[in-house]
TrEMBL record:
Residues 1-21 have a biased composition (Basic and acidic residues). Residues 1-56 are annotated as: Disordered. It comes from the Bacteria. It comes from Actinomadura alba. Residues 38-48 have a biased composition (Acidic residues). Residues 157-334 form the DUF5753 domain. CDD domains: HTH_XRE (cd00093). InterPro entries: Cro/C1-type_HTH (IPR001387), DUF5753 (IPR043917), Lambda_DNA-bd_dom_sf (IPR010982). It holds the Pfam family DUF5753. SUPFAM superfamilies: lambda repressor-like DNA-binding domains (SSF47413). This is Helix-turn-helix domain-containing protein.
Length: 340
């Protein structure tokens, strides 16, 4: 395993340690309390206490910015020992709305955020301007909103998180991961999943997938660590030429410094991820927890409880050991290509 992935493993241990120091197993907010978050009784000094560094987050898509802003509002509320019920009363809403705001699951109204800042004792105009500016960015629709006619809302959330992630770890058993698919391969996969869709709808879905993969070669690309079962590479999606094009593309992507590909060969037998495909997203902002993504036919699960994330991290780490080493990937892909 290369030094880079040893660093990832150390990050896993560090986040788990930080989380265990600040989040008790009975904490009702464990699903959104950040690993490495500050102790509410000892708020940080300087800009961290006022939100001055909120706008410094480098990968600030609207989805993750809502989470950042929500977490900041929660910390402000807890520092003042104000209940969610009292906060909700201030903005003429229920405590459940405060919970949804703090989890970043809804948009923000300027009046609500301004009233909450007043309640939480944030009165300095400069400090308020920072938070309100972040709110405006968080409410800005992402590029994927223009495809709302073909994207379910539960998948729009994933695209937003994916765009903001600094590290994406994924395991696939049936298909090549979406970020690594060619246009022709993606079209074949989408047709399989949406047999009743019109040609126009198919093409819009393909365009979404092609736009998503642009992040890998952007100015601040995430690190992608993808593990694929050999079955995904042997299943002839779209026919021989489409599969040849897909394998050639994987060989090219495998050369990128921010991408590592591994294959779980058939001769491995059973392996750690018997339950199916999943992805783990990590963010550069330390106040954000890792998120595990599990896609189903008509919905998806987003897990960020420490116990759940640690289980999937352990499984992904075992997979990376059971799979063929990354330096063998090019040879395996070339051998498959020669067989077509």
């Amino acid at each position: 395993m290369t030094r880079r992935w040893q660093d990832v493993a150390r990050q896993d241990r560090l986040r788990s340690t930080r989380a265990s120091e600040h989040i008790g197993p009975g904490d009702p907010r464990v699903t959104q309390a950040p690993a490495g978050s500050e102790d509410p009784e000892n708020p940080p000094d300087g800009d961290d206490a006022t939100g001055g560094r909120l706008l410094e987050y480098p990968r600030g898509g609207p989805t993750v910015l809502r989470i950042v802003l929500g977490s900041h509002l929660r910390r402000l509320r807890e520092q003042q020992n104000i209940s969610a019920e009292d906060a909700g009363y201030t903005i003429r809403a229920s405590h459940s709305k405060i919970s949804r705001m703090e989890l970043g699951r809804v948009g923000f109204k300027e009046r609500d955020v301004a009233d909450l800042l007043t309640l939480y004792g944030v009165l300095d105009p400069t400090e308020r301007a920072v938070v309100l500016s972040l709110m405006e960015q968080a409410n800005t629709p992402g590029w994927w909103h223009q495809y709302g006619d073909v994207l379910p809302s539960w998948f729009e959330v994933y695209i937003g998180l994916e765009e903001a992630a600094s590290l994406i770890r994924t395991y696939e058993v049936q298909f090549v991961p979406g970020l690594l698919q060619t246009e022709d391969y993606a079209r074949a996969v989408i047709r399989l999943g949406h047999p009743e869709a019109s040609p126009g709808e198919i093409e819009r879905r393909v365009r979404v997938r092609m736009t998503r993969r642009e992040c890998l070669t952007g100015t601040e690309p995430p690190t992608l660590w993808a593990i694929m079962d050999e079955a995904a590479l042997r299943r002839p999606m779209g026919g021989r030429e489409v599969m040849r094009g897909q394998l050639v593309h994987l060989l090219e992507v495998n050369k990128l410094a921010n991408v590592t590909l591994q294959v779980v060969p058939f001769d491995t037998g059973g392996h750690a991820a018997a339950g199916g495909p999943f992805a783990i997203l990590r963010f550069g902002e330390q106040s954000l927890p890792d998120v595990v993504y599990l896609e189903q036919l008509t919905s998806a699960l987003y897990l960020d409880k420490l116990a759940d994330v640690d289980k999937y991290l352990h499984t992904m780490n075992r997979l990376s050991v059971e799979a063929a080493r990354p330096e063998h990937t090019a040879r395996l892909l070339t051998a498959l290509l020669d067989q077509l």
